[in-house]
Amino acid sequence: MMAMAKLLLVLAVAILTISMVESKLKETNNAEEQHQLERVNGQGGQKNGKGSLQSSQCPRQCLRRCSQTRYKKPCLFFCLKCCRACLCVPSGYYGNKEECPCYNNWKTKRGGPRCP
């Protein structure tokens, strides 16, 4: 019976440790994304220099932007993320990213485009 209690205690500590590590990783990733976005905008997180869309307009604009792709789910996910951060979605289904500098310049860690 004592061995069972020790095993449960060790298991509980392991689960707690894992959840703390996951939480810290999420915080780190969010901080890195925010830092990158601030660097791309050159505005330190201010809304100056961003597009003229309102956040509530993002779903409609991203549906339009992603309507021609075979990969709708990831396209919509990243488009919405970019739109909410940049308040801009380029015209058309592909390209035209020069219309939205924030959208165009936001890159992944590997240097690829983050926004579709």
Automatic annotation (TrEMBL):
Name of one Pfam family that matches: GASA
Protein name, per record: Gibberellin-regulated family protein
Record flagged with keyword Signal: yes
Organism (species): Rhynchospora pubera
Keywords: Signal
Region Disordered, residue ranges: 35-60
Signal peptide: 1-23
Family of the protein in this entry: Belongs to the GASA family.
